[in-house]
Amino acid sequence: MKMIDLKDKSLEQLEADLIGLLKTQFSLRMQHATGQLSKNSELKRVRRDIARVKTKLAEKGVGNE
Fold this sequence. Notes:
Layout: H1 3-7, H2 11-34, H3 41-60
């Protein structure tokens, strides 16, 4: 996922993406803890995608009250 992909998404879509990524991250962390994770780089990719989505949400003003 790149920032260009996130540019045209609405707030609802970004929030849905964030929830999905957080669930994926949890799943990957559990796989890593039990030794079932084959690609350790997936954790890094998901973590960075979460940061990208959170950055885009901040740019759009979510949480700035």
